[in-house]
Amino acid sequence: MKYEEYLDEVTTLIVEKYGITEAAAIKIVVVAQDKEFFVPHDDKPEMRNIDQAHLDARALFEASGQAKVVPGKKKK
């Protein structure tokens, strides 16, 4: 998938899996971009796949600190 599609997929997964708002998920992804988290994904298209998107969604959500403030959601 294209780079932009990959970012959209990661954002969508964060919303769906962890029950936060789309705005909060977008902020998580934008912060990750600013910290150059996605540079390898841009350089290596093979990293932009659904399995990696699930891993990245989890890693970014957990790193964001949002995991501590979402009531009733379990880590997966």
Explain the overall architecture.
This protein has one domain (3-66). The protein has helices at residues 3-18, 22-34, 39-43, 50-64. It is mainly α and 76 residues long. It contains four helices and no strands.
Topology:
Elements: H1 3-18, H2 22-34, H3 39-43, H4 50-64
Helix pairs in contact: 1-2, 1-4
Distance between the amino and carboxyl termini: 24 Å
Q: From the helix content, strand content and strand pairing, which structural class follows?
A: mainly alpha
Shape: globular
List the uncertain runs: none
Helix content: 55-70%
**What's the number of structural domains?**
1
Instruction: Give the percentage of residues in beta strands.
Output: under 5%
Please give the count of helices.
Answer: 4
How would you summarize this macromolecular structure in one to three sentences?
The protein contains 4 helices and no strands. It is 64% helix and 0% strand.
List keywords for this structure.
mainly alpha; 4 helices; 64% helix; 76 residues
